[in-house]
Structures are given as structure tokens and as C-alpha cells.
TrEMBL record:
Organism: Candidatus Enterococcus mangumiae
UniProt xrefs under InterPro entries: GH, GH_1_N_CS, Glyco_hydro_1
Record's protein name: 6-phospho-beta-glucosidase
Family: Belongs to the glycosyl hydrolase 1 family.
Domain of life of the source: Bacteria
Cleavable signal peptide: none
Entry keyword set: Glycosidase, Hydrolase
Length: 470
């Protein structure tokens, strides 16, 4: 592995910060999502209601404890940390004339703390944090108005953090916009601010959301490169490959189409052109995309520098149509074990996906998320023996290494998801833990909030120390 390979982790604002009403922050879409459970989905409210828990309000209090947390990351030897910026800390309503200085100051302090520890900050502009005002006023990302507002928000940060931040990502997982997947309901809201079941014409709305976000990404990449040509600006995608159940030709074809359906935005961002087949497909379905003549040029000039890959699981395309079993569609793979949340554990799938994307686009990758959500037990002496997590990460990092050293995939770094326990995006639980650092909070947000090192803490430290040779 190259010596400048980035090792670290990724967190997101709405899952970690808390302090939802502090520092001049506005209300975001995620501040209106309740806590769910493994079996009960989170509710999405139009306004806050008594008697509900909204996990983003408290998170793990990274807003106040970031120095302590970064100190622990530094102790593990992190050379990179990916954070997201909450749009509502910078522009509380999304369309305010001036940015909120307190918000800018907070993130600048976080970045300065990282730099003081020799940790490269990687900034995601949008990890599902959307000002609620933009949903009410403009119908979220269905409106092109958001493209310019997002550009202004990104410009503010590019300028403020220029010279301190090199790596940026425009969006997180905006590719999960498949109306047929089990996860469509909450992803549509997380990405666009709109409830899937309330969309009058879901196909039309989703196509426009996908278009607008891809365009916003291109415009921000172009702008960032103008501000500082040294910036490395990518976009983060969640890719969960599907394998065919058998080699039956119809299954192979379906499998190809299943795998392709969430890639067209990546095509635009990597190749600089909206794929013709997709535009034709839209028009054949009666979908009319609002576009402008200058868009083509923006797409062309706003291609990304690297692909951020979030990888958790794979699934299977069945021979015959069956009800979806896996989180992102398809059925489960009989050769794989499932996590306690039903996510198939497939380390080879990471090598497979890295090869697939690298050979398709020949752009450097960065593993921006990967990890195991599991229930941990805090044992006497504040110890967590999370050997299952070590096993999971060990297998995945080993497969990543093979992709790099045996298949020659260019990869900039490996960032584990939630290096410190945080709120689960899909369920809102604290008990779905990913961290090397245990946070003493329960699903109701109750507890001391104290941080304890798990067994995996020293293990990951050793991986980083040896640059993955051990
Ligand atoms: C990714 C998201 O899809 O999966 C993260 O980018 C999320 O925000 C992660 O937390 C793991 O999912 P979950 O539901 O286990 O938190």
C-alpha cells in the first residue's frame, strides 16, 4: 500500500453532532425523523411532536465533545476523517442572504483540531442534511432553485476552508433513488426532503431529483476547481452489488439492469455527460426533465476527481420475480451470513465492486464507508470484546488490499463507518454500533455519554501503524 494511503473513518453531522438548536442552527429534514427500531420504521414528521425521540437532536454530542473524540482518533493513528457539514449550521434556512458565522466557526474549529493532529479532513457537503425551509418553500430537490443555493453554500465553505481542506465530496449516496427498493421510502426523504408516498408522480419527481443533484454536484466541482485547482472533489455512492441467482440468460439480463439502475448519476459525474439511454428512457415514460442549455457544459466541466465508495453488503437477483428480502433489493445469498440487521456480510463483494467501478471509470476510488453494525456489550471494567467487528473489518480490508495490490485498483484510502458509535441512519438506534469507541448512550439517548475504547480500537491502531501489512 502506498505510504500516503489515508486510514481513518467517516461520520455524519445528523448522526453525531446533536446541538440541533445551538449555534444558530436551523431545522433540517433529519431533525424531524423519529427513532425507530429494527422492526419499526422511523417516522417522518412535518413538525416536532411531543412524546417522540428525535435522535439528531442529541446525537453523540460531537458538537461539544469533538476535541475529545478527535484526540481518540489521533491515538488510533488516523490520517483522515470524513465529516459532513450540516447545511443548516451555515445557512439555517438554506436561502438566507448571509451565512451563519457561528456555524462556520464551529466547522473551522473542527478542521483546525484535525489538522493539529495530522488528520486530513474530508468534507461532505450533503449527507442527508437539508434545510426544512427549502422543503416547504421549494419542494426540496425537485426544484432547480436548490442548485444555485447549494452552490452558494459550497462556495462559502470552499472559500472559508481553502488552504486547510483538500478533499471534498459533493453528496452522499444520492444514487439510492430507486422507487422499487425497500429503502426508497426513507432514502427519498433523506435525499430530497420529500416523502415517497406523498409524491404525486414518483417517477417524474425522482428523475428530476436525480438530475438536479447531479447538476448541483457538477456545478460545485467546477466552482471548487476554479477556486483552487488543487482541490480533490469527489462524490460518495452507496454500491451494493447484486449477483445472478443462476446463469439463466433472463436472470443475467435482469441482474445487469439491476446493477446499472443506480449508476447513471455516476456515469454523468465521471464521464461528463448525461447518458442518452437514460434521457430516452425518461421521455418514453412520459417524464419531462426541466433542463437548461448550459447544463451540458456544466456536466462536462464538473467531473469528479475520485469516486467515494460506501460498501456494506451484496444481494442476489432471483430467477423469478420475488419480494425483496435485502435492504437495497433482491434476495439473500445462501452462501453468506447476515448481520443482526439482515445485511449480508460479503468481503469479496468489496473487491468485486472496487474492480467493477475502477475498470468502468478508471478514476481513483476512496472507500468512504464500510463496517459492521452490531449490538455490543459493555462488560465490567468498561470493556467491549468486539471480535466479530475485528473479523468483519479484517476480511474487508484484506479484500481491499487484494484489489489494490493484485488487481491494480487505484484507491486513496479506507475510512470505516462510524469509528465512534453514533445514531443509525436507517433505524435511529444507538444500539446498532459500528465504532472502535463505545459511547455510553442507549436508544433513548440516555446515559453518561462517556467514551470507552473497544477491543477493536487497538486492532485498528495496529492496522494503521503497519499500513495494512498486519
Ligand atoms: C450509509 C450512510 O448508507 O450507511 C450512513 O451513508 C449510514 O449515513 C450507514 O449510517 C450505515 O447505515 P445504518 O442504517 O446502519 O446507520
Amino acid at each position: 500500500m502506498k505510504t500516503d494511503f489515508l486510514w481513518g473513518g467517516s461520520i455524519a453531522a445528523h448522526q453525531s453532532e446533536g446541538g440541533w438548536d445551538q449555534g444558530g442552527k436551523g431545522i433540517s429534514n433529519m431533525d424531524l425523523v423519529t427513532k425507530g427500531t429494527r422492526d419499526t420504521p422511523r417516522e417522518i414528521h412535518k413538525e416536532l411532536k411531543e412524546g417522540f425521540i428525535y435522535p439528531s437532536h442529541t446525537g453523540i454530542d460531537f458538537y461539544h465533545r469533538y476535541k475529545e473524540d478527535i484526540q481518540l482518533f489521533a491515538e488510533m493513528g488516523f490520517t483522515a476523517l470524513r465529516i459532513s457539514i450540516d447545511w443548516t449550521r451555515i445557512f439555517p434556512n438554506g436561502d438566507d442572504p448571509e451565512p451563519n458565522e457561528q456555524g462556520l466557526n464551529f466547522y473551522e474549529n473542527v478542521v483546525d483540531t484535525l489538522l493539529a493532529h495530522g488528520i486530513e479532513p474530508i468534507i461532505t457537503f450533503f449527507h442527508f442534511e437539508l434545510p426544512a425551509n427549502l422543503i416547504e418553500k421549494y419542494q426540496g430537490w425537485t426544484s432547480r432553485k436548490l442548485v444555485a443555493l447549494f452552490e452558494k453554500y459550497a462556495k462559502t465553505l470552499f472559500e472559508r476552508l481553502n488552504g486547510k481542506v483538500t478533499y471534498w465530496a459533493t453528496f452522499n449516496e444520492i444514487n439510492h433513488l430507486d422507487p422499487n427498493s425497500k429503502a426508497a421510502e426513507f432514502f427519498t426523504y433523506y435525499i430530497s426532503g420529500l416523502k415517497f408516498e406523498e409524491l404525486e408522480n414518483p417517477k417524474q419527481a425522482i428523475a428530476q431529483i436525480a438530475y438536479n443533484t447531479a447538476l448541483a454536484s457538477a456545478k460545485v466541482v467546477k466552482l471548487g476547481h476554479q477556486i483552487n485547482p488543487e482541490f480533490k472533489i469527489g462524490c460518495v455512492f452507496g454500491i451494493n452489488p447484486q449477483y445472478p441467482e443462476t446463469c439463466k440468460p433472463e436472470t443475467m439480463l435482469n441482474n445487469l439492469l439491476e446493477n446499472e439502475k443506480e449508476l447513471y448519476q455516476m456515469d454523468v459525474m465521471c464521464r461528463g455527460k448525461f447518458p442518452q439511454y437514460k434521457l430516452k428512457e425518461f421521455s418514453a415514460q412520459g417524464i419531462v426533465i426541466e433542463q437548461q442549455e448550459t447544463d451540458a457544459k456544466d456536466f462536462q466541466q464538473g467531473t469528479i476527481d475520485y469516486i467515494g465508495l460506501n460498501y456494506y453488503m451484496s444481494s442476489v437477483t432471483p430467477n423469478e420475480q420475488k419480494e425483496n428480502e435485502a435492504f437495497f433489493g433482491g434476495i439473500q445469498n445462501q452462501y453468506l451470513e447476515l448481520s443482526d440487521w439482515g445485511w449480508a456480510i460479503d468481503s469479496v463483494g468489496l473487491r468485486y465492486t472496487m474492480n467493477w467501478l475502477y475498470r468502468r471509470y478508471q478514476l481513483p476510488l476512496m472507500i468512504t464507508e464500510n463496517g459492521l453494525g452490531a449490538e455490543d456489550v459493555l462488560e465490567p471494567g468498561n470493556i467491549v470484546n468486539d471480535d466479530y467487528r475485528i473479523d468483519y473489518l479484517n476480511l474487508h480490508i484484506s479484500e481491499m488490499k487484494k484489489a489494490i495490490t493484485e488487481d491494480y485498483v487505484e484507491c486513496l484510502g479506507y475510512l470505516s463507518w462510524g469509528p465512534i458509535d453514533l445514531v443509525s441512519a436507517s433505524t435511529g438506534e444507538m444500539s446498532k454500533r459500528y465504532g472502535f469507541i463505545y459511547v455510553d448512550l442507549d436508544d433513548e439517548g440516555k446515559g453518561t455519554g462517556n467514551r470507552y475504547k473497544k477491543k477493536s480500537f487497538d486492532w485498528y491502531k495496529r492496522v494503521i501503524e503497519t499500513n495494512g501489512t498486519e
